[in-house]
Amino acid sequence: MVSEPYSHSLNPMTNHLIEYLLSPHENSSNTFLKLQNGDSISFLEFNQQINRIANYLIDKGLQPGDRLALQAGKSWQSLAIYLATVKAGGVFLPLNSAYTVNEISYFLDDAKPKHFVCDPAVSGEFESITQSAGCELISINADGSGELSDTVSNFSGQFVAIPRSPDDLAAILYTSGTTGRSKGAMLSHKNLWSNAKTLCDVWRFSSQDTLLHALPVFHTHGLFVATNTCLVAGASMIFLPRFSIDEVLPHLPKATTMMGVPTFYTRLLDTAEFNRNLVGHIRLFISGSAPLLAETHIQFEARTGHKILERYGMTETNMNTSNPYEGDRRAGTVGLPLPGTSVRVVSPDTGEALAVGDIGSIEVKGDNVFEGYLEMPEKTAEEFTADGYFITGDLGMLSEDGYLTIVGRGKDLIISGGFNIYPKEIELILDEIEGVDESAVIGVPHSDFGEGVVAVLVGKNGPTKEQVLSHIRDKIARFKQPKDIIFLDELPRNTMGKVQKNLLREQFKSILLN
Ligand code: AMP
């Protein structure tokens, strides 16, 4: 079947996400994606595939504002489905490929997508739930081949974007939900294009760049920070299915930039062959999604001559701060507010702005900040202040010259005997100890103090408990010192490299009670 292109015209003043991401390069024969198998996809080919999928979705009855959920492997077709959904006026809802059938059922029930694109290996499990919800199942194999790709090849490669206004939704991303159930963060066209444009400017992306992309594409980092920024710039991406040293090392010399979670950088440093010669062509390494230890920053510079640029953002807000491209990239900080984003640190009790150096709740405001949580108006209202700032849930402090340092999630704060204890302060001291590779400090129930401090340490040939305690004894107040120390082979982390302290708290919840 061949369908004719739809005859809507895109008003250039609508501020449609597609105007920023695709229109400037839609006819370019320059390479957009370099795939692992050696194939290249040009901007023109990518755009034509997007158009075919958009025509197919419209043919299937997708209406403006309808949602399309996708749980699939990382393939270039997944990126094309994202942009085709948005181009066809829909709302894209990517789901972590590790989610189980049970978890996916919750998301489908919550978000009520019109279409659910997933692997044929699991589609059978969703038949009844999608049927009763009026949601159509479409299948795509992990490598992007299969039903959807076969069918869309019969559709036209021309499509004019369905007009949307800047505040209309382009995507819904579920938060990782380390406490309670995940919430759907509603992101508008403006949220996404404004952030992509800003990042392109502040990180100096251009059509000369090649980004090494080894992140998943169901999360804000790989999908929006990496992909949207490259699209705005007309830059190309070496598109790898995952981060593995064997796949990344041979591609590094061909890249000009890399974005990663801190684990990427620690794994590179753990690799003897990783040296200056491999990164001679790279102009910028960027890190985010979890804290980059100052030690990693320093070691990376010593090994490669590059100062990693650390930035801070979240699913709900896109990116908020970044260390400067030119200027002081300060280890252990997440830099300065991005242009157009206002960042403040306030007292969690009174909401008053705090003095330089005082730790408090981080709040942000700007075009980058989301529209609210799906079907949760009360929760949304709770998370915004009366003057429109989003309460991030992170704790941090500002320096005299405006650099933000994150000290942890608010929920990780430990309150012991009425005193506030910031885990990061203790972790930094523990990490200095010879033989400790990394640490996670948590609060667990304590019969006297409410909560007590427990340190979880990783490190082969690590120190004894006594050595740890003697190292820390004179360095911090007694009430902050760990009441117990646990040694593990590794810390539990999610796919974005974040330490899952909630799992540690659960595992060791009884350790101080007897
Ligand atoms: P997500 O919504 O999965 O992107 O997670 C957002 C959270 O990750 C933030 O609220 C922070 O707690 C954390 N995060 C992101 N970037 C950084 C960073 N550079 N340093 C420390 N924490 C970070």
How is this structure best described in words?
The strands form 6 sheets. Strands 2-1-10-9-11-12-13-14-15 form a 9-stranded mixed β-sheet. α2 packs across α3 (76-87) and α8 (189-202) packs across α9. With 514 residues, it is an alpha/beta fold. Among the domains are: 16-32 and 40-188, Rossmann fold (3-Layer(aba) Sandwich), CATH 3.40.50.12780; 337-409, Luciferase, Domain 3 (Luciferase, domain 3, Roll); 414-507, GMP Synthetase, Chain A, domain 3. The model is unreliable at 1-8 (pLDDT under 50). The longest helix is centred in the first third of the chain and has 17 residues, at 43-59. It is built from 16 helices and 25 strands. The structure holds adenosine monophosphate (AMP).
Bound compounds, each kind once, are:
adenosine monophosphate
Counting copies of identical and different chains, the oligomeric state is single chain
Sheet having the most strands: 9 strands, mixed
Rg result: 23 Å
Morphology: globular
> Poorly predicted ranges (pLDDT <50, ≥5 residues)?
1-8
Tell me the fraction of residues in β-strands, as a range: 15-25%
Strand order of the largest sheet: 2-1-10-9-11-12-13-14-15
Q: What is the number of E strands? A: 25
**Structural class estimated from helices and strands:** alpha/beta
The CATH homologous superfamily name of the domain at 16-32 and 40-188 equals ANL, N-terminal domain
The level-1 CATH class of the domain at 16-32 and 40-188 = Alpha Beta
Counting DSSP H or I runs of 4 or more residues, the number of helices is 16
Distance between the termini: 71 Å
Tell me the CATH architecture of the domain at 16-32 and 40-188: 3-Layer(aba) Sandwich
Instruction: Quote the CATH topology of the domain at 16-32 and 40-188.
Output: Rossmann fold
**Share of residues in helices:** 25-40%
In round numbers, the mean pLDDT is: 92
